[in-house]
Design goal:
Length: about 600
């Protein structure tokens, strides 16, 4: 069975090196040819058998690949190469737990193999084995302490393991090894300093984080990120005056960044997410009057005060704000103001204001709150109607909403946005089929617009007209391959909507297929992070990398995944309750056995 040490003669040993080279350069046919040359003389050489199997795996010949690798292990179980290759096969099949076992077996035979240790660390972070990841990265650092990536990766491992102090000490120790930073590496070094400040902030060492930013201010290239972190840290340490100054500097750079406005408001002693006192309101009002003088063209500076102003102050501010939207015909006005509807008083002011506008514009050609003599364009009237239609629909008055949108369409039938809003109103009023017809009418007015096509498709699906939806969305997919094209584009909104439509029509098999496709997309997204484990270390995008890892940990809380999972459960229940579900006129999807399925909830996906 096991032949012990299998040492090849020099000629075949060089040929074996060629196999590895051909594999790395994706010259698989040449690799197979070279392997066959060795196996002709040494048919039981385990490492060559394993490499041939690995090469076959890349040629989509998985069964043969596993056969050759297992034969290689059979003849040479003491070869770390065979175990490493076996792990690579499992990794390609996304069976990471088995791959880790193979790598560990390989390391028992060659404990200091850098390549195997690196591959193991990638699988450990992918599987979130944080303790194992930290141990492996420490071993790599000890073996090769002159490699920057080993220091950084070990710090990340400790950071993710919540060992903040140790992570910070590792980065400081690495800084101590630097004699100088070359110009070509200034960006990477600056990113490391920002990452160190991030670790200190998360550990609660806020003053240390501020000190790190101050010391590295002349070395950090991403000045904006440093300034944002500084403002946040000053705020958390209670230095509101300093934080206010920083956020005012940031607003000079971008007065429409809402995060900066939130920071400024907090620095002024208010919590943007809670009720404010009259004194706080007066402080904010004065602050935004000052900001308006500095940035008169900023939309954010005009819009944000609408959140905290009340009564006549709110009315005057909102009248000034909406005028430009109406005059320029900006369709997103209602979407912009919809968050104000949590206040009934503000919603009432808006309703009265727009009703007065609709009443006065036809006769005076002026907005009632504008004192100038300039006459408004006729389009202002129709955009006021458009706003009112959405306003009444939001407040549940479907009849009034339809009256307003019909009046707008009658006035100017060429504005496509009107048809989309009418479709929404009809759908919420309980007539999804009429909504789909109206949306399709709007789509036909601009056949080159993908958004309109998607909207019409959505409403056809809401009306359970799946064939019409397929015909519509097919206009923007590759000819003859609609299903695969949508799947490749990870078009989850369509798959969820179509799946729900099939559920409503009790076509459980088709629904199941669509919901499983969504689950596959999320599996792919989770798999896609694999390449970033090494890439982000090389590029030193450390803060973004940590955010990516944390996002991936909550990936399955995404609404599309939740909707698909819920749909899968309903589809399985439907199939169980109705063992033979006819799909269309000919096909029967699946017959389930009379016993209840024994699959665990996790296996549904």
């Amino acid at each position: 069975m096991m032949k012990g040490d299998q040492v090849l003669p020099s000629k075949e040993a060089n040929l074996f090196k060629q196999i590895v080279k051909f594999y790395e350069t994706k010259q698989y046919k040449k690799g197979i040819k070279a392997a066959d040359q060795i196996l002709k003389k040494f048919p039981d050489h385990g490492e060559t058998l394993a490499m041939k199997g690995l090469t076959l795996n890349c040629m989509e010949k998985k069964e043969e690949a596993y056969e050759y690798v297992l034969r290689g292990l059979k003849y040479d179980m003491k070869s770390h190469v065979c175990w490493h290759v076996y792990g690579l096969l499992y990794r390609s099949d996304r069976d990471y737990r088995q791959a880790i076992k193979c790598y560990r077996n390989a390391l028992r035979l060659d404990k200091d193999n850098l390549q195997i240790l690196r591959d193991l660390s990638l699988l450990q972070i992918q599987m979130r084995d944080l303790s194992g990841f930290a141990e492996t990265r420490q071993q790599l650092l000890m073996l090769k302490p002159n490699n920057r990536n080993n220091w950084i990766a070990f710090a990340i491992a400790q950071h993710l393991h919540s060992s903040y102090d140790l992570a910070g000490k590792i980065l400081m120790a690495y800084e101590g090894t630097l004699e100088g930073v070359p110009v070509s590496e200034r960006y990477e070094h600056g990113e490391m300093l920002l990452y160190k400040a991030m670790i200190q902030e998360e550990s609660g060492a806020l003053n240390s984080a501020l000190e790190s930013l101050d010391k590295g201010s002349d070395q950090i290239i991403d000045v904006l990120a440093a300034k944002e972190a500084r403002g946040r840290l000053l705020q958390q340490t209670g230095n509101l005056t300093g934080a206010e100054a920083v956020y005012r500097e940031l607003l000079e750079m971008n007065p429409d960044n809402y995060n900066y406005h939130t920071g400024l408001q907090s620095s002024l002693g208010t919590d943007p997410g809670s009720e404010i006192t009259p004194d706080q309101r007066a402080t904010l009002q004065a602050a935004y009057e000052d900001l308006f003088e500095k940035y008169p063209k900023s939309t954010g500076v005009k819009r944000i005060p609408l959140n905290f102003l009340e009564g006549d102050h709110f009315k005057a501010a909102v009248q000034s704000y909406v005028t430009r939207f109406l005059q320029k015909g900006i369709p997103s006005l209602f979407s912009d103001l919809s968050s104000l509807y949590v206040s009934t008083a503000k919603a009432d002011i808006l309703e009265k204001m727009f009703e007065e506008a609709v009443s006065s514009l036809p006769s005076s050609d002026k907005l009632p709150w504008c004192q100038g003599e300039t006459l408004e364009e006729p389009a202002v009237y129709v955009w006021a109607l458009f706003y009112l239609a959405q306003h009444y629909n939001h407040r549940g008055a479907s009849t009034k909403a339809l009256e307003k949108i019909d009046a707008a369409i009658a006035h100017t039938p060429t504005i496509i946005d009107f048809y989309l809003v009418k479709a929404r109103i009809l759908n919420e009023a309980g007539d999804p089929k009429a909504a789909a017809i109206v949306a399709d009418e709007g789509r036909s007015m601009d056949l080159a617009d993908r958004y309109l096509n998607s909207e019409a498709t959505k409403w056809w699906l809401q009306a359970d007209q799946v064939e019409s939806a397929q015909d519509t969305i097919a206009l923007f997919t590759k000819d003859g391959d609609q299903g695969n094209n949508l799947h490749d584009m990870q078009c989850m909104w369509y798959e969820v909507e179509a799946g729900n439509s099939h559920l409503r029509c009790e076509r459980f098999g088709k629904a199941l297929k669509l919901f499983k496709a969504v689950a596959e997309h999320f599996a792919d997204i989770q798999e896609d992070q694999f390449d970033f484990h090494s890439y982000c270390l090389r590029k030193m995008t450390l803060r973004t990398y940590v955010k990516l890892l944390r996002m991936e940990e909550h990936l399955h809380g995404h609404r599309f995944y939740c909707m698909a999972a819920f749909g899968l459960v309903r589809a399985y229940i439907g199939i169980y309750d109705q063992p033979i579900a006819l799909e269309g006129s000919k096909s029967a999807v699946s017959a389930v056995s009379q016993r209840r399925p024994s699959a665990t909830p996790g296996s549904l996906l």
